[in-house]
Design a protein that fits this description.
This is HERC2 protein. With 423 residues, the protein is mostly beta strands. 10% of the residues lie in helices and 35% in strands. It is built from six helices and 26 strands. A hairpin with a 3-residue loop joins strand 1 and strand 2.
Length: 423
């Protein structure tokens, strides 16, 4: 939505040590095509070194089989194409799974319930794994051949359904999984109350699904015609009775908190549903959201922040966790508008047009940066926005990170970080 309805997306791909590539590509192209275009822009001898692209949001490898539009890529995004595969780490509440460069998965931790083995996924995990997804009590691994291997609590998805193949993406709530197949159908398993049972909407999930979004206990599938199909726990987004007529067509993208969803439509309209305290009610700001086109939307676990095309800021949801930007919105305008936003678990931070930084939300989670805002450089905040410090990067910085920046001219800033511990 950053580029309105323009079908062409302008991207920058950084290949560390090799080149910076500027790419213009149709938003309907898939990620495999984007990777091919990236490779053609570098020397032939280096092309085999590039195997994946890293998203600018969350520092996760972009999923194969998706169009740029459904992958959430927007004009001006900066992607990274590492020369080595970046190891991935997934975690439940009590165990970890690390995906290595050769497609093997290592697991460690503990299994709280007898019979629910979280630390031994079996022989299927020794090779061929391309992605590992996890929720509180189970793991799901996607393999190169489109099959899925699961382990962990049986009641919440630790056993995959029979005949689950041709899968291109796996999504999760807190206690269930959903798999998108290459043919556009969706299969789900796990706790029925959290999206593990889609019987009531099974027919609608048989074809034409392009992407699946999740709250804590509900899924929302976006179909090719822009229709939205939901299932799971009603209060956290499965119940769309109040907005169903607005979700029948024309939806371009969906965003979520733990208890709500918000959709942007082709005509610029915004539709919110789910728990009102988690952002499911945008009636207070609907006039502001309709006044200008939305450039992007970000979320903490219970609040949304809209980056408007004119650079203004609109927020709603849980006030303490970032849903109230009283004072901040005016400060943003005084500084010339927004340049970019980053979201943590319970706070937001933003760079303004004049280079200044503002923050709002829970103070202990980064919602107040009065004492350090003047020390923050744009380079550091951009790096943080890439997810390299995790979703709690505000707190990580305040508690345990040291930062050194050096500038070579106005447009070339480098950042070094060390001693960053997990929170």
């Amino acid at each position: 939505m950053t580029c309105g309805l323009d079908p062409i997306v302008d991207l920058q791909v950084n290949l560390p040590g090799l080149a910076v590539v500027q790419i213009s590509v149709d938003r309907q192209e898939d990620l495999a095509a984007l990777l091919r275009i990236t490779k053609t822009a570098i020397l032939p001898r280096d092309r085999d070194k590039v195997s994946q692209l890293i998203s600018p949001r969350g520092a996760r490898p972009l999923r194969n089989g998706l169009s740029l539009r459904r992958a959430g890529l927007r004009c001006g995004d900066v992607l990274i194409a590492p020369l080595k595969r970046v190891p991935e780490l997934a975690t439940t509440e009590t165990a970890f799974a690390a995906l290595g460069a050769l497609g093997a998965v290592a697991t460690w931790g503990r299994s709280p319930n007898p019979g629910d083995d979280l630390v031994d996924g079996g022989a299927e995990l020794r090779s061929g794994v391309v992605e590992v997804t996890a929720h509180a009590s189970a793991f799901a691994a996607l393999k190169e051949d489109g099959s899925v291997a699961c382990w962990g609590a049986k009641a919440t998805g630790g056993r995959s359904p029979a005949q689950l193949n041709q899968v291109v993406c796996i999504f999760n709530t807190e206690r269930a999984f959903a798999a998108l197949r290459r043919d556009g159908s969706v299969a789900c398993w796990g706790d029925p109350l959290c999206g593990g049972d889609a019987t009531e909407v099974a027919e609608a999930l048989q074809s034409d699904v392009e992407f699946v979004f999740a709250s804590a206990s509900a899924f929302a599938a976006l179909k090719r015609n822009g229709a939205v199909v939901t299932w799971g726990e009603g209060l956290t987004g499965a119940n769309t009775s109040g907005v169903a007529h607005q979700l029948r067509e024309g939806v371009q993208h969906i965003f979520s908190t733990k208890g709500a969803f918000v959709a942007i439509k082709e005509d610029g309209d915004v539709v919110a549903w789910g728990s009102s305290v988690d952002g499911g009610d945008a009636s207070r700001v609907v006039a502001d959201l309709r006044r200008q086109l939305i450039r992007d939307i970000y979320s903490t676990h219970s609040a949304f922040a809209a980056f408007m095309k004119d650079g203004s800021l609109v927020t709603w949801g849980n006030a303490r966790n970032g849903g109230s930007s009283v004072g901040v919105a005016a400060e943003v305008l005084r500084r010339g508008g927004l340049r970019s936003i980053a979201a943590g678990e319970a706070a937001f931070a933003a760079i303004c047009a004049d280079g200044g930084v503002v923050a709002w939300g829970v103070p202990e989670w980064g919602g107040r940066c009065v004492s350090i805002c003047e020390q923050l450089t744009e380079a550091w905040l951009q790096l943080s926005m890439g997810g390299l410090l995790g979703r709690r990067w505000f707190r990580s910085y305040l508690d345990s990170a040291r930062l050194k920046t050096r500038a070579s001219g106005d447009k070339n800033r480098e950042v070094e970080m060390w001693e960053v511990r997990a929170t």
